[in-house]
Amino acid sequence: MALTGARPQLIRPDGTPARAVVADDEEYLADLLRMTLAAEGLEVRVVATGRQALDAITEFSPDIVVLDIMMPGLDGMEVMRRVRERGNSVPILFLTAKDAVEDRIAGIGEGGDDYVTKPFSLEEVVVRVRALLRRNLGSAEAEAESVLRLADLELNEQTHDVTRAGERITLTGTEFELLRYLMQNQRRVLSKAQLLDEVWGYDFGGKTSVVELYISYLRKKIDAGRPPLIHTLRGVGYTIREEA
Fold first, then answer.
1. Which pTM does this prediction carry?
2. Any long-range contacts for 114-120 (C-beta under 8 Å, 24+ apart)?
């Protein structure tokens, strides 16, 4: 049963259901997540350890991973690091019982895409999973190639390739969506609230610090050693533009 009635089913480009790996050593919680995501139309594989999660990600090729940070053996952070080292950019939603905001943000800062804090509502997990899947899968229908350009920066909306001066830049899913939205609104000043709404797709717990964090990540990847394109208007927001 879906939690909020009929919603569009998220499918892969080949027409098959989107796939999720759920990694949590709390059997009852993992089973609840499995049933909830399956009710949303996803094909779900559940594992209980970090090593099993790595194997499932390799064998099952999921479109999203719901990953508990505290697990026996390899913890969620180490699983995420190994997944990213393999060049796999699958969206990762962390489950964490930690209360410190710094700990949560560290997870997404090192390659995760989002987090929810235990205890959480199943509806909250569904909303965040669907938001990440929409960004990862996009439309199942073929779209014309679309390339956004600013100075020597190029972003391909179809292939998700990003280059600057011909040099490829690797971004996480959230970094890509943030850069895309900035480039779709070149020279416009966008507030943190706008970015939270448009990029994350929901109220990120009211914590605008995540926007500042991701802007800093983009600057390190996009602007490092080059003429800056991303600019801050203190007290107002952010914009992307080529300085005259």
1. 0.58
2. 114/174, 114/200, 120/95
